[in-house]
Design a protein that fits this description.
single chain; 579 residues; alpha/beta; Rossmann fold; six-stranded parallel β-sheet; globular
Length: 579
Amino acid sequence: MEEEYIYHPLENIEDVDLFYEAVERQHLTKAISDERPYTYWTIELYDQKNGIRGGGGLGILAADTRRVAEKLGIPFVLITPFYPYETRQVIKDGQVFDEYLPVDYHDFGFRKVDTVVIKCCGDICKLDVIEKKFNHTRILAITEPNFRELYADASGSDHRLYQEVSLGFGGYVALKLIGLKPAIIQLNEVATFFAALARLDELVRNGMDFYEAVVYTRKHTLYTNHTLVQAAEAEFSYEQFERYVFPNLKSKAVKRWLSEKFEDGRIKLSSITIEIAELKSGVSKLHARVANYHDVAGNKVKFRAITNGIDMDTWVLPEIMRYYHDTEVLDDVNLPTINYAERLESLTVEDIVRCKNRGREVLNETLRNRPDHHGKILNFSEDDFIFDFKRRFVDYKRPDLPFRDIMRLRSILEERGAHYILTGRVHTGDQRMSGILADILRRVEADDYLREHVHYIADYDENLAYALSVGSNAAVNVPIVGLEACGTSWMKDVANFNVLISTHDGGVADGSVNSYLNVGGSDESEELNMLYQRMEEAISIWQNDFDLEAAIRSQLIEFLPVISGTRMLRDYLDFLFPV
């Protein structure tokens, strides 16, 4: 018997009443349990310890969130693809090149659970389900030999759609295969939309009224937007959906509902993700305010601000964590204590220097296997002053800003004998940023002093990020204001006693401009001049014990509550399951 199609677009008061009647009739999950865990869907996971290497902050945040959930004993399943190839970047003759290396999930402690199938282009596609279990959490992954690497092809390509459909439909079946039902589905960026669509389809084909199924799915789905620069934004054609998406839907009602979302034969995943998720969050206070999305009625969508955080046990030098715990700055789950600000009064320059000297040892150990762009093995003394830029190499983060006035940069570095370490992954195929990097290196090469004091290190990864966080003196973070959603690299710098030089953007804007070395100005020329002034000031701070104590203490007082991953997960739980 064919299913009857009923569609309510919520255009009048009667429809609104029906909406609330459906909510009242339908029992909604209000608790997390081992059988109904928190499910976290991400197209990218960056967790080298567990054998999955992503592309940037989205993947690192996913790994941190799972680790924090494990420590808090929260039933949590992270669902992601396992890509059979990793991208590594090398630099030759000033140009960045990608290398693709095969990886095997067996080498990282994953076990195969079973195989699931999806339908694409008239064929049956078999997907291996693999998992790695921990005490309270697990990584559940979908993979197959032809998956290729993370972010293969353009965002609107057939292969990218295939990867996303595999994660959504395949991952949802995999979750059921191991006997679990999601208490909540957290969609991290629009690439994970198909997980919620799979749930909607299952509810309807199992007999739930379509309208109630929409309500139920919306009530149990959180969409988290992670970027104001929509590199992750995807747009697909109706014809692509006919080949990759519609064959995996059993319900005619769901197919019709989805079909009606196309405009001129195309669909943006952001528009439909907003509609299928009642709960929406941005990843900093500023991001939640300025995220510019609208629903089908044209109304601006409201996002709850839940600022990202880091797993401090992973990213903070053990000696610094020991200080935080011994002085009761942080409690046993790494939340700032009630009187943490007072406790930080005990922080002395001796504590800072001792920890940073140990961090310098860690940095040198890492750099033994990470030569700079000249092939030189770097080794820094405790007295060397190091600036670093360690972020994705994209234009809005402005990695080239300090190099706009090459002689001014030389003057600053030469006065103190300082070094500048530049690192960050250039997106595959980003010819513009590859060209900017090559131009920076050419100008550095042409200057006899900078040639010895500016170092680019290719293939930026977790290990290098950690080493620079614990071993540098000052971090440069200068995104164009209004374009950084949150960022977490700066959080690692603050926690590890680095002086932060930053524009007031992303998660940094959660705090006061007076708590760090702010880079501001009415235009880019003023910002550039301010950046150089702040770099000079950072050097001066490290030369004065009183100023160093004050600067590090000010940053920690302002930002420790912001950067805590425990705080982040607690905020999510309070939002999803209000008392």
